[in-house]
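Page 37, top half.
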Amino acid sequence: MRLDYQGPLPEMVGFLLLPQFSMMAFFAAVEPLRIANRIADRPLFDWTLISADGGPVTASNGMTLMVDQSTGQVHHLPSLAVCSGFTPEAHLTRPLMAWLHQLDQAGCCLGGIDTGAFLLASTGLLTHERVALHWESLPAFRERFPGIETTDELYELGERRFSCAGGAAAMDMALEVIARRHGVKLAIDVSEQLIHDRIRTRSDQQRTALVKRLSTHNRHVVEAVALMEQNIEEPLSLEEVASRVEVSVRQLQRLFEQELSMTPRQWYLQLRVKRARRLLVETDLAVLAVGLACGFSSSSSFARTFRAHYGYSPRAVRTGDFQPS
């Protein structure tokens, strides 16, 4: 959303809805704008919903929204937010790519909500930008677009680009825009209306701290899991993990079984397989490339482990025999 907007009010924000978009993230971005209008008692913001063909769009939760316009009817906007969900690049057509470039050339501020950044990156419109994404999507984005700087912060607001991690982060980003454009007091009033206990800054953590996420305060277990999450492509040996957290392998095994109800090897393998699943769902990387990116040395070992974990093969994701959850 444009921070340097100098035009007339209400400020228009476009939302491009792609099939399977995140309804939660979309509403989290729009509702603060609506409430800001009500509290200010004047129209500060307006919005228009857009789809590629002007037809209704079904979100990932199965609900369908009517839109106001097709992309062909929109030639200028101060800001456009791309709202998407699973496999956003599957919906990128040549006409849509051309339309996004036309808007950019006309001065539109372009942004991605949740996985919308994948689509903008595919068009070459995020070069030299810093992009915020949902923590689950970050590994896939980094594999797909290694030249683009990424962050696991809640959102990024630049002069001509913006992005956010989706979900409630879209609300925090909208509140920050309201604060910068119309004052902190209004943003706080909107936040209170939303029963949002505080306006999180962009540097707030997306994920719950490991201590809470793992439900354990054991320092050795927490540090070991952090090491595993940081070393997926080239997995560390259990000996190295144990050494770095200053326990023996035997102690590490005992602690994991006691605190997490599985062995360190099982936990590490689960992390890698889950990462692989995300890459298969969100990128078009070859199956072997996905396996290598998650620390598997061969396609056979990757396929065998993946099937044992999920009950279907990695290739089932690409052949349509698999539906992402």
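Page 37, bottom half:
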Amino acid sequence: MNHSDLLAKAPSLTAGMAAADHSPDSQLSQTRHRAALVASWHIAPGSTVLELGCGQGDMTAVLAEAVGPKGRVVAVDVAAPSYGEPVTLGESAARLAAGPLGPRIDFRFGTDVLDPSVDFPDSTFDHVVLAHCSWYFASLGQLRDTLARVRPWARRLWFTEWDLTPASDDQLAHLLAVLIQGQTEAAGSQGQGNVRTPFSREGLLRLLPESGWTADGSEPVDTEELQDGDWEIAACLDLVSEGRLAALPEPVRQLVLSQVDVLRALAKPRGNRALPAYSVTAR
């Protein structure tokens, strides 16, 4: 399926997402973003795909469309089906499972691939995908171990994440919100947000050889339509209102509070431009 064909499917894929009932425009832009990514990866019909960190299935739906009726997507997430709001992972998965893509998808929530009981024969999958989920990991060591664990199971890795290097000044608010959340987590105050371990593209490229993968391509990814800048700024400001900073060592707390002051000065009420993203391929 080529780029234009998959993008043309974005509205119908969006309609199959439970989150579209609450924010159809946001869901459409998120789906279009993932459709463009998958189209650039040239995943052939009939392929088998292991998706790590599937969440509510934004990428899962696009992958299932790309692999076609003879393909298969095993969508794994360590979170429980009850996680998420206003739509839980389980509710979103149930909507997808009841639709035309359902037979192609095997959702496995509450599943950690580092658990020895989770195993697949070598080369079970043509592709393994991590899309905008790697900052959820508790540490770079955990990500490295996960990439090493899945290495024998799949022939090819497709990885995409936000880029910590802004392309313009209007992305600085998103960057600052990400770094504040990462500092708060690193100092021991753990939350339920999207950002626990932010790292750079260069950090990933250093990590891949340690986990048995060889990178063979890296491309910038357009994020112009995405709302994640607004979402992460809101999540960052919630840290203060939730009182999580009180658990931090005092020097760290003061540093974070000063950065929050800067974030408030930089951020707009809405329409903050998201950071760029990148895609890395490896084998």
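Margin note: Residues 69 and 104 are 6 Å apart (CA to CA).
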